[in-house]
Write a structure and sequence with these properties.
143 residues, alpha+beta
Length: 143
Amino acid sequence: MPRINLHRPVHVLLVASVAMSTAGSALAADLGCDALISTGQRMICSGFEPNWAIELQCSGTTMSASFIDAFSGDGIETTPGSISFASQDPWALSTSHGVQGTIAHTPAGCTDEGDFTHDFTFTPTAAPGLGGDLLMPFCCRVE
């Protein structure tokens, strides 16, 4: 009967497992801004009817936020500001513009008005000039 060496397959499996966990750790460690997005990335959460958005940008370990207003005037106005988080996953946020709400990780669970799917959903609870039925959940995309 031929002899089967089981140590080789176990060794290969162990090496593959360590490599995968290291890659996962590197990815998680790279989410430099509140464990939400990586350095150099931005997340755009844009609403439809009325048209407004919040844009989060990660620079190093600092997150900033811009409020984009396309409903209250003749053009689009972008106002830079700051953001703070009270929790993670879901990320409860508050900006210097008065935007409040939560961002939830919803893998492929948010479909926008163009029928594109996204991995994050923003549920606003407050926004300048908006209230009531105008504060409905919408998708966030990472760029």
